[in-house]
Specification:
With 170 residues, this protein is α/β, with parallel strands linked by helices. It has three helices and nine strands; from the N terminus they run E-H-E-H-E-E-E-H-E-E-E-E. Helix 3 links the parallel strand 5 and strand 6 (118-126). Helix 1 packs across helix 2. The structure holds inosinic acid and magnesium ion.
Length: 170
């Protein structure tokens, strides 16, 4: 098995900085509750927040849907969030990757039920061609083809999250 580099550390850093700036230009002085989805988005969320100049809170959610390389389509909530952290707030969900869209659809519904003031989605990667449900991220790092990617938080059966770059298994 070999790994082909798709985006190196420099490319990731510079795109993440751009996204932080873009988000700051939207919220400026208003506080934002960033929700990092575990485990995949954790590297991305750390870098995004370290570069974010505004007022920020950080919460975590854990959902799972994948077994190996195929999405099961069935979403399980493994770590929840309390309504008092969301109600009336500007919320940004930080995702690692949008694939079929099932996870995002579930997450959006779950958070919207807690009546945030605003809700936006920021994903590092987007596989638009794989979409099964009509849903889109508001902010996206990189749009990619139908490839299974690993590294920078993304896993294949819980492995390779610690790679500092984003790669494709070949
Ligand atoms: P969806 O519900 O099909 O959109 O799947 C989204 C979730 O599946 C993501 O949050 C990832 O955790 C996982 N996933 C989808 N594609 C990949 C991939 O290429 N590599 C690693 N994980 C992936
Ligand atoms: Mg995920």
């Amino acid at each position: 098995m070999s790994i082909r580099k798709l985006y190196n550390q420099r490319e990731i850093n510079s795109r993440v900085k751009e996204l932080s700036k873009e988000l700051y230009s939207v919220y400026k002085k208003e506080e934002v509750v960033f929700i990092c989805t575990l485990k995949g988005a954790v590297f991305f969320a750390c870098d995004l927040l370290k570069n974010y100049k505004g007022e920020a809170r950080l919460e975590f959610l854990r959902v799972s849907s994948y077994k190996g390389k195929t999405s099961t389509g069935k979403i399980e909530l493994n770590l929840s969030i309390s309504k008092e952290n969301i109600e009336g707030k500007n919320v940004v969900i930080i995702e690692d990757i949008v694939d079929t869209g099932n996870t995002l659809k579930f997450l959006k519904g779950y958070i919207n039920d807690m009546n945030p003031k605003t809700l936006k989605i920021c994903t590092l990667l987007d596989k638009k061609s794989r979409r099964e449900v009509e849903i889109d991220a508001d902010y996206c790092g990189f749009e990619i083809d139908d490839l299974f990617v690993i590294g920078y938080g993304l896993d294949y059966n819980q492995k390779y999250r610690n790679l500092p770059y984003i790669g494709v298994i070949e």
